[in-house]
Amino acid sequence: MAVLVEEALRSEAPLAIPAGVLAQAWRGGARQARIARLLQSSVTVVVPLGRRAALRAGTLCAAAGTSDVVDASVALCARERGQPVITTDPGDLRALDPSLVLVTP
Prior knowledge:
Blueprint: H1 2-11, E1 15-18, H2 19-25, H3 33-40, E2 44-47, H4 51-64, H5 69-81, E3 85-86, H6 90-96, E4 102-103
Helix pairs in contact: 4-5
């Protein structure tokens, strides 16, 4: 995953991180240096999970028969931006949206 992040930063490709994903990954401290660097990059945007997005994520979960709203927010974020998803858990995302381009480390 670290290599993929470094490649993305080097290429200056736009990166969108759903807020729920950031909350799941962030624990603070020196061990979070890579994430902190990613967040400081001008190509990175943290996508909030506001009211409208939360309702859409819940609706997607219901349609797919899943319950992970963070995964649903990832699927929606990628779909809206036409971006691939870097993930270590492709099965859950594939269930939410089979058309997503998934990149696994």
